[in-house]
Amino acid sequence: MYDFAYHRPKSVADAVALLKGKEEARPMSGGMTLIPTLKQRLAKPSDVVDLGGVKELAGIKVEGGNVVIGAMTKHGDVATSADVKAHIPALADLAGHIGDPQVRNRGTIGGSVANADPAADYPAAVVALNATVTTNTGKHAADGFFKGLFETALGEGEIITSISFPKPEKAAYMKFPNPASRYAMVGVFVAKTASGVRVAVTGAGPSVFRVKAMEEALSKNFSSDAIKDIKVPATDLNSDIHGSAEYRAHLVGVMARRAVDKANK
Amino acid sequence: MAKLHVSTTINGEPQEFLCDAEQSMLDVLRGPLGLTGAKEGCGTGDCGACTITLNGRIVCSCLMLAAEAEGQEIGTIEGMAGEELHPLQQKFLESAALQCGICTPGVLMAAKALLEKNPDPTEHEVRFWLAGNLCRCTGYDKIIRAVMDTAADMRAAR
Amino acid sequence: MTSATGIGARVVRTEDKRFLTGTGRYVDDLPLARATYAYFLRSPHAHAKIKSIDISAAEKSPGVVNIFTGKDLVDAKVGGLICGWVVKDKNGEPHKSPPHPVMAVDTVRYVGDTVAMVVANSYDEAKDAAEAIRVDYEVLPAIVDLAKAFDKGAPQVHAEAPGNLIYDWEIGVKADVDAAFAKAAHVTKMDIVNNRLIPNAMEPRAAAAEYDKGTGNYTLWSTSQNPHVLRLILSAFVLGIPEHKLRVIAPDVGGGFGSKIFCYADETMVCWAASRVGRPIKWTAERTESFQTDCHGRDHVTHAELALDKDGKFLALKVETIANMGAYLSTFSTAVPTYLYATLLAGQYTTPLIYANVKAAVTHTAPVDAYRGAGRPEATFVIETIVSKAAAELKMDPAELRRKNFIPAEAFPYQTPVALQYDSGNYPPIIDEAMRIADYAGFEARRAEAKSRGKLRGIGFSSYIEACGLAPSQVIGQLGGGVGQWESAQIKFNPTGNVQVITGSHSHGQGHETTFAQLVHDRLGVPMDQIEVVHGDTSTTTFGMGTYGSRSLAVGGSAIMKATDKIIAKGKKIAAHLMEADVADVVFENGTFKVAGTDKAVPLAQAVFAAYVPHNYPLAEIEPGMDENAFYDPANFVYPAGTQICEVEIDPETGIVEVIAHTAVDDFGNIINPMIVEGQVHGGIVQGVGQALFEGAVYDKNTGQLLSGSFMDYTMPRADNFPSFKLGYKVTPCPHNPLGVKGCGEAGAIAAPAAVMNAVHNALAPIGVKHVEMPATPLNVWQSIQGAQRAAAE
């Protein structure tokens, strides 16, 4: 790692002030991506602002029809939360299969969503459940939040404070993990909500995306049969030593059908 | 840059140290603190050999800044045994659930954390929990059995 | 003697308490006062000319102590790294031997080739400085695709190896084999790739060195499997430091699997630079460096043909293999695809005629050398895949075809057509036992049940033979091996009766400290806790050959037995004196010398005490002291054999292969500690299944970049990839070593790949899939299924 100055603010306001006041400051939530990036010398921030001391950012509460998860809530806490398990078991299931226990004890939902790794799991849940991302400056709807590879709608000095997930009628997440890294090579989150069906895919493309054809078919008939003939084009999908674009396109169909079956169980 | 002064607790004992912002917890444990039980197998959080506990929860110390330890409680393999070996250590010993020993401290820390939250895990649960700890020697077989057997012994002793 | 802690007992490992409590001492754990830290600048290119290296800015970087480049080594007349096995080609010419500079001088030949060494006060400072080194490269085209290495116009790796050919070697008489093929009722043909692997011992390679100006002595701590051999190479060929001035210590070492046998550039540099820097130097590889610079394993492209008569008897086997050596010839690289591969192609079968042709190629990739099994997994994969393929083509049961061709028990010792003489074995009961444990009879019912769940279930056999404990030295010398293949042992009693057992082999996970103590305990009756096994330090141990090729017990253990013989012989003389008896009448039983038919007895400890306090002692006949040395040079290899049966289920929609059950029945000869042996088999199976299903080193075919260069991209076997394994044993003791042992360290990794891949092919055959390349990753399996479906549609 290159040299940097380390800060551990206690409030969101202090954190934001630090992030805005420094030349090349980077926030650190769980550090599960940032620290390896620093160790590989792929980033050279002047300052690292550790959000771990900001108590107001952690915690899970149920507010009306929503489960609201603080940005600094760790994956392991989402996975084992009685509230999440009761209201959105698919989200608990997703969180319980991120990385390994060591990662789940450190990585946070806010960090994952802000980082927008194309292979991260949470973006699929955010989009499929039509969640609202709350920041220190305002709110972002799920659609439009993820803009591309490691790119979001977050502005300078803007940090996520919580994410609000509306309770779905039914939902499930199916992941095909990369055999080596266990990140999602293809992850499909399917949700049937009061406002319609959403199918969100992570891992397959440069950023999470919805499959409208599947959503329409599932709106009429929420069964895996309804989408068995829907193919996702391989164009623009990721390709690497573990999966060609064609294979990923195929897996989107398989994982989507399995997610629907799981949601219907 | 000036060194950071960190006050923490390691294996139940208060501990102060100086570190650079960019030093990992693992660097400080293995270097100035002389606690070389945690190993660096990859430095990127993929192998689990550096597993320690942070406030009772397992983390990869290679992906934790030493500065983050301020005011927290750290547990390492050196603190696992008291006068006697921990039941997991004893079972690993009796069943040769280790070979070269590099992954062993991390595996033990992870297994201990599992049994603390789930005293009756299935084989599948043990295997899934330990998937973050790479071992190149044992083929995992004896490790999994030792953890299952320890869990059974600890349940019986309760 | 049978006891709770003697031969055959499940003795708790002596070494484990330190590993379990975090108090093991590995190279990187060493506290060295005033240490400096080394960082190596590696080539980012697969092939490039170095036009210039400018270190002027780097030298001014904070904390820098010294920077060295290849030119400094040329100026200091440092030798190159060596290949210690001369293989003679078809025409009797020695293999091409291109130079292997410790650090690149004018050309880099793989991504990771060493370019400069920075020594600084801290590791981060060394790394900072390395970033300031300006290397002007002229990037050249690279050859990384083994199958194209000999193509006309392929980029050339070394001028000394025209056409990238290191040797064109053969064994057997081609004309005889061709004649047999002409008469065959059936010929099975096969093209296979044995995928390239990265060893990934969990402890990265590391080295530390210090130089004592007062004495001129160097001490090198290295993660080595064979510290004496490393010292010999460094002294005699590379650095010229006299052997007695160089102490090499391999303390606790965290796994090797072959990758820590060899003499590497970085440890060489750390040692050499220690005297120039004047302070201790520490270096530990980052995992990325391990991926890029540890010697890789396997990497063969093979065409094989098996000729059978109308009854299914094997008539002849023909094998053509291209073996990748990487960019430079590593320490034992040349022997792996020849004497450790082609000589094993008879397998467990009576195949009367075998011809193998092996061409070794250099490419712009990391050097390739021995990795767990070294040649024997590749041979087993060829034989056991083609035999199962032949069975499928002939619609025969794969176990039946194997049985039909097994070497019968009464045929031992059995001379194969490929040089080796198998000393002992009895193969049919092994496969019977494996089939019983695996419930082969119930397989079709399980297949049907899986089908009802949409899964394809398959079962696969692999009946392997291996040759372990390279020997005897004279034969190895005739074949081009550069070292002896004996092992040393010393049994050194202290006056109070406890004992040091000093071995020239080295334990890096195998549990020698326990197994070897069991031998001495069993033979001499010394309690286990009174025995200390010492290894790994050239200053405290007798010269030894180290640990590789499953040799330690068969060769090193036998040396220990020889030393115990000498202890007993000397003890008898002392006891005879003390008992005033004739030596010929003294017997040694349960740790005590006795005179048969009397109640006279002298415990060994008493004889030992007398030897060190020789007040009442036959000084005229024998020397004081109880300290005996032995060297053991085996008469032959040992030949472990066994059968593995793997059962898999495949999800045809995703291509995921799941290992449902894996059975291994082995004949390792006599077993000293079953608990340790089980662990060796388990670990070997996982490495073998890893090769079959997960692992593969992938280089970009154009740029030569290592695409599988981290745990994020190289799939390591993890705990949730496996079921528990089912093991069994059959024993035919080795007839030529005193313990009757054969060696168990590599068997799992040798047999498993073929067992898994045969199961995969068996599972996929009903849907028309003919071939899946190893590793059978989900992508590979899915693509194979797609290919079969397309072919069926056409």
Automatic annotation (TrEMBL), chain A:
This is Xanthine dehydrogenase family protein subunit M. Keywords: FAD, Flavoprotein, Oxidoreductase. SUPFAM superfamilies: CO dehydrogenase flavoprotein C-terminal domain-like, FAD-binding/transporter-associated domain-like. InterPro entries: CO_DH_flav_C, CO_DH_flav_C_dom_sf, Diverse_Substr_Oxidored, FAD-bd_PCMH, FAD-bd_PCMH-like_sf, FAD-bd_PCMH_sub1, FAD-bd_PCMH_sub2, Mopterin_DH_FAD-bd. Pfam families: CO_deh_flav_C, FAD_binding_5. The keyword Repeat does not apply. Residues 1-170 form the FAD-binding PCMH-type domain.
Automatic annotation (TrEMBL), chain B:
Residues 4-80 form the 2Fe-2S ferredoxin-type domain. Keywords: 2Fe-2S, Iron, Iron-sulfur, Metal-binding, Oxidoreductase. It comes from the Bacteria. PANTHER family: OXIDOREDUCTASE WITH IRON-SULFUR SUBUNIT. This is (2Fe-2S)-binding protein. It comes from Reyranella aquatilis. The lineage of its organism: Bacteria, Pseudomonadati, Pseudomonadota, Alphaproteobacteria, Hyphomicrobiales.
Automatic annotation (TrEMBL), chain C:
The keyword Oxidoreductase applies. Residues 21-141 form the Aldehyde oxidase/xanthine dehydrogenase a/b hammerhead domain. Signal peptide: none annotated. Keywords: Molybdenum, Oxidoreductase. Pfam families: Ald_Xan_dh_C (PF01315), MoCoBD_1 (PF02738), MoCoBD_2 (PF20256). InterPro entries: Ald_Oxase/Xan_DH_a/b, Ald_Oxase/Xan_DH_a/b_sf, Ald_Oxase/xanthine_DH-like, AldOxase/xan_DH_MoCoBD1, AldOxase/xan_DH_MoCoBD2, AldOxase/xan_DH_Mopterin-bd_sf. This is Xanthine dehydrogenase family protein molybdopterin-binding subunit. It comes from Reyranella aquatilis.
